From TrEMBL:
One biological process term in Gene Ontology: sperm axoneme assembly
InterPro entries linked: Ig_CFAP47
Pfam families according to UniProt: Ig_CFAP47
Designated name of the protein: CFAP47-like immunoglobulin-like domain-containing protein
GO CC annotation: cilium
Amino acid sequence: GTRLGPKEKLDIPVLFMPDKMKMYEALVVIHVMRENGENWPYEDSTELNKDLKSSVTVAENGGIQGILWIYPVRGIPEAPQRKLVPAVVRCRARQRVERRVEVQLTGVVTDASAMPTARNSATVNTNKPANTQEEAQVTDGFLTTMEFLYELQYKSDEIKSQLGALVGMHLVQKERDTESGIVTLIFNIVFAPNKPMRNEATLVVRCTTGGIWKFPVLFIATEPEVEDVINIEAVGLNKESIVGFKLTSQTR
């Protein structure tokens, strides 16, 4: 019963209050009819194509009585943002370090109605480039299988350009506690910085049945080790002494 004038805008609020960490789907349907109750004339209303039939309501006299707009809505809950202590990955510049990072996912829905098609084994896709979304499956030995996508997100494109090629990550272990329902994922993170830096990233885990979890990660690269010591011996007062040394670039 909402009246809408010509070229007038109508805001339709959608409220999402999930009680479980699973995906919810709904449809927002808008039905428009003329205010005077008349129909829109349409000569071949009996021969409407399938796409048009799903978006109009046809009157008995052959005219178009109403027009439908249907918008699918998908609600994906996100775990509450708690003040988590970031996992710290520290390494000296021009060196390489590997660090195990363990995260716990609470509230994962494991009932069959929220599950995708179950698979027989647990696999990890490690053939994709670093820092892109990767897929992992976790099975508890029964018929339910949970699939996850994970990636590292950065606060800005500048930080991403600095860390993107220096950080690698893959899943090495996954398990679910049958009593508490908590899923534990253990990642192996490789950090090989080329210069001192201190940047933050966010490990984002998504469940294909719905739900997003975020965990902070802090990358710290300290000063590199001294490669060599250059000694310059004076040949006399007010006289120059010269020492030559070579610098080799690892790129062109």
